[in-house]
Amino acid sequence: YVAESTRRKVLQAAEQLLYVANSNAAALASGQTRTVGLLAPLLTSWYTSEVVAGVEEVFAQARYDLLIGTANPLARERIFRGDARFQQRIDGVILVDVFCSEAGASQLAALDTPVVVLGERLTAVTSISVDNKRGARMAAKHLIELGHRRIGLVGGHAHLDVVHNVPTERAAGFKSALAAAGLNLPGQLVVDGDFSIEGGREAMHTLMSRSKPPTAVWLMSDEMGFGALQALRELNLVAGRDVSIIGFDDHPASGAFGLTTIRQPVRDTGRLGARLMLDQLEGFGSVMHHPIELTLVDRLTCGPPPA
Question: Among 197, 198, 203, 191, which residue's Cα sits nearest to residue 158?
Fold first, then answer.
């Protein structure tokens, strides 16, 4: 609200002095930090890095900063109880695979800080997720239609104490698809792969050492799938001919490995989460769940069971 001539003088002086606005002072004046927090249990995973890339892409265009932290128990507790020290640093928070449940979501909804939850279907706060059970059923159905009847499962994070989380949902969907086809999933064909490449490699070696090894294996992540493919090479077996392998994610390297997988658009999920957060910060967002579609990508690592 100044004259144009005054504006030009101020901008000219700022340029000559290399002036940079003090963000803390601006936050005090506006009541906004223009910073959004993002918490995730594991910041080093491919999935989290892809989500963060999508979020940052949108926020950079909107001139918002992103404050990233690990969703350890202390950080979770600070958010759920509405810790003022935390809220004063951010305008909103995005939770990635934190699994707050409806009870926790209701606590978050009571806070003044806008919240978007990625990876879980909720009603009390804005949420985004894929249907993990459906994705698991898609993987099982594909293997069953190829003629497989003895199918292994490699999951992970079985120690989680949250009822509704990715591993338990995917395992439930996979087992239900097998049961619908009249098949069971023996305990000796279920192995924990820790959602890592090395974990997938070790899990595949374990499965193939069984007295009756599976003819096909679904791994709950592509990274575990990469490890499984390495194990098959070490055993002089060919994926898609001797044993069929299917993953979940459509990791950027999956095409190079020829890995059949269930694709979820991870970076797009991050972009959508950021846009929904901006909507809330601008005052016109509505609380609802946003489902993300899954697709089967059929490549070289799946085929009929060996004769």
Answer: 191
